[in-house]
Design goal:
By secondary structure, the chain is mostly beta strands. The protein is built from no helices and ten strands. The strands form two sheets. Strands 1, 2, 3, 4, 5, 8 and 10 form a seven-stranded mixed β-sheet that branches. A hairpin with a 2-residue loop joins strand 1 and strand 2. It is globular, with a radius of gyration of 14 Å.
Length: 114
């Protein structure tokens, strides 16, 4: 796959039904048959006061925080995150990412499956 200028990709706007704090935007950079065969990469942003929304994934996910500050919520607790933070979310572990700062939380997610 050739390099992609992710800041130029159109973002999907995601929001929670009945929960105004679940609000983020993102773009799938690569996934099965589109630049990758066995992995998925997504770039996403969460504005201050918003969050990703509690969920689980069917494959392992690694997240990298590019900028901003927030809090990772997992089944086993809450953890501060900021620029340069990397964490792995095992399959079927409940999690959420909350922007607790004053600037946009910019992240990259890498999934171990297409």
């Amino acid at each position: 796959m050739d390099p992609v200028a992710t800041n130029e990709l159109e973002r999907l706007q995601i929001h929670g039904d009945g929960d105004d704090t679940v609000r983020w935007q993102g773009a799938f950079v690569s996934f099965g048959g589109h630049g990758a065969d066995a992995t998925t990469t997504i770039v996403f942003e969460i504005e201050p006061g918003n969050r990703l929304g509690w969920h689980t994934d069917q494959t392992e996910e690694t997240q990298y925080i590019v900028s901003g500050t927030g809090e990772l919520h997992r089944d086993d607790g809450k953890f501060p995150v900021g620029p340069g933070s990397v964490f792995v979310l095992p399959t079927n572990v409940g999690h959420d990412l909350v922007n607790t700062g004053t600037e946009t939380l910019r992240c990259v997610g890498f999934f171990g499956a297409a």
